[in-house]
Amino acid sequence: MNEIQIKLKTFLDKFFGSHDLQPDEDIFALGFVNSMFAMQLVLFVEQEFQIAIENEDLEFENFRTINSITNLIERKTAMLVQ
């Protein structure tokens, strides 16, 4: 796991109890996600990684797994560097 994945897993583990969430595991399919949690997740990503999540970023596919959230963060931070 890279640093982004570790930060995401640490945050998500607070909500997933004793479940050992894997990087490619669908958090929506596990049934742990509700609208309040989704808002918390977006806010965490914005604050922790200093990026803005735009309306077009708010798709399930971008937030379904640790890997997909990591890909979103990497794309957004790469845009900031350019």
Describe this structure in words.
This protein is mainly α and 82 residues long. It has a single domain, classed as Orthogonal Bundle (Non-ribosomal Peptide Synthetase Peptidyl Carrier Protein, Chain A). It has four helices and no strands. It has helices at residues 3-13, 35-49, 60-63, 66-81. The N and C termini lie far apart (25 Å).
Helical residue percent? 55-70%
Molecular shape: globular
Mean residue pLDDT: 93
Given this structure, which CATH class is correct? Mainly Alpha
How is the CATH topology named?
Non-ribosomal Peptide Synthetase Peptidyl Carrier Protein, Chain A
Total beta strand runs: 0
- Specify the number of helices: 4
**Second rung of CATH, namely the architecture:** Orthogonal Bundle
Could you give a quick summary of the protein structure above?
InterPro entries: ACP-like_sf (IPR036736), PP-bd_ACP (IPR009081). This is D-alanyl carrier protein. This protein has a single domain, classed as ACP-like (Non-ribosomal Peptide Synthetase Peptidyl Carrier Protein, Chain A, Orthogonal Bundle).
